[in-house]
Write a structure and sequence with these properties.
- This protein is of the alpha+beta class and 277 residues long.
- The protein has 2 domains: 95 residues, no CATH class; 144 residues, no CATH class.
- Helix content is 51%, strand content 21%.
- The chain is built from 6 helices and 10 strands.
- The strands form 2 sheets. A 6-stranded antiparallel sheet has the order 1-2-3-4-8-7, covered by helices on one side. The protein has a 4-stranded antiparallel sheet with strand order 6-5-9-10, covered by helices on one side.
- Helix 5 packs across helix 6.
- The protein is elongated, with a radius of gyration of 30 Å.
């Protein structure tokens, strides 16, 4: 409010000097152009907006303002695209060598996205072992799979990881699978991406320390075991990969939106030029 009051005062001063409305408005447009050339895009937009508010009948200046606003929008999106390209390149520089530490699995017939896993954690190498394993898809989504087997079902639906006096615990999962084979009951409880209660981050943060895993069932049953060092390292490395790929995907989305807005702006600029001709 104070800003526009100040602008109104300036407008009145210009009027007192005998300038026409167009001449007064042109002063703002000239200043806006100077700000645009100096890449002060916010200032350029504020000055251009002021013309619409203070001089609604300065049609020529307002026409220039519309053109300038499109130029500012174009420049802003080009700058965003340039920045996002640099961030995408930086992320890829970190991700590509990291990928070599994992096994990539993808069934082209049934899977749209492949999975990065740690070779030592694949199920065929851990038959009968109760453990936490991880996998990251090509979009960076990390899933922790809690695997449990015994002579009877426990029906565990959540996982708590404990290190000293601190812990992280997942919410009750609705993504689970149970089956029996040769008298052995098998359970797999998946802690979905972003819904693990911080379990993956906790493991990554405490990978050098002993971590106790507590499986929890709805009826209050629990089962406790110590996490193997190799599994701590595996999930910590997958968490790092997930974080980097997620960051990469975020930068890609921002760039895509900037490209979309740039194309829209340039289309309006072309239309305006055609009308002017």
């Amino acid at each position: 409010m104070k800003k526009y009051s100040f602008l109104v005062i300036l407008a009145l001063l210009f009027t007192a000097c005998g300038e026409s409305v167009e001449e007064q408005a042109q002063r703002y447009i000239d200043r806006a152009n100077q700000a645009f050339q100096a890449e002060k895009y916010s200032e350029a937009k504020q000055l251009t907006d002021s013309v619409k508010i203070l001089f609604p009948k300065a049609f020529e200046a307002r026409k220039q303002g519309i053109k300038l606003m499109l130029q500012v929008e174009e420049a802003e999106q080009l700058r965003t695209i340039e920045y996002e390209n640099s961030m995408i390149a930086a992320c890829n520089e970190k991700i590509e060598p990291l990928k070599k530490r994992f096994k990539f699995e993808k069934d082209e017939k049934y899977q749209d996205l492949g999975l990065y896993v740690v070779a030592s954690q694949v199920p065929e190498k851990n038959v009968g072992v109760n453990y936490l394993r991880g996998q990251v898809d090509e979009l960076g989504r990390l899933v922790i799979i809690s695997t449990y087997s015994a002579s009877s079902y426990m029906h565990h639906r959540s996982v708590r990881v404990v290190c000293g006096d601190v812990y992280a615990e997942s919410p009750v999962s609705d993504d689970f699978y149970e089956f029996k084979d040769l008298g052995i009951c098998y359970e797999k409880c998946n802690l979905k991406f972003g819904q693990d209660g911080g379990v993956a981050a906790f493991i990554a943060m405490n990978k050098e320390r002993n971590i106790q895993v507590i499986l929890k069932a709805a009826d209050g049953k629990t089962y406790k075991y110590s996490m193997r060092p190799a599994d701590r390292d595996a999930i910590a490395s997958l968490y790092e990969l997930s974080t980097l790929i997620t960051e990469l995907e975020d930068h890609k989305k921002i760039k895509e939106e900037a490209v979309r807005r740039l194309q829209f702006t340039q289309s309006k600029m072309n239309t305006q030029e055609t009308v002017s001709e």
